[in-house]
Amino acid sequence: MEHSTGQASRWTSGFIVFGALSAAISVIGAAYAAHGQSLYGSSPAMIQSALQLMQFHALGLIIVGEIGRASCRERVSS
């Protein structure tokens, strides 16, 4: 049981880390698109839409990681 709980904890941490990195990349991309020489040949609306979708997916990954982490804690305590 100990091994599976530790492995599940690593997976949930992976979701949280990947979600946080994805969120950071989307913020950097949004700042570049807003302040830099916007990506040549691309529509600003398309870039904004893609970055918003990336932010929602990043938030989803973080939420899934937190739910998994809470589930692991619940299994350990019972």
* Average pLDDT reading: 83
Q: Give the termini separation.
A: 12 Å
The whole-angstrom Rg is 17 Å
From the spread of the alpha carbons, the general shape counts as rod-shaped
User: So what's the oligomer here?
Assistant: single chain
Low-confidence stretches: none
Task: Considering the chains and any ligands shown, give keywords for the structure.
78 residues, mainly alpha, 2 helices, 87% helix, 0% strand, rod-shaped
Overview of the molecule:
The chain is an all-alpha fold. The chain contains 2 helices and no strands. The longest helix has 34 residues, at 2-35. The radius of gyration is 17 Å and the shape is rod-shaped.
Please provide a brief summary of the model.
This protein is mainly alpha-helical.
Topology:
Elements: H1 2-35, H2 44-77
Helix pairs in contact: 1-2
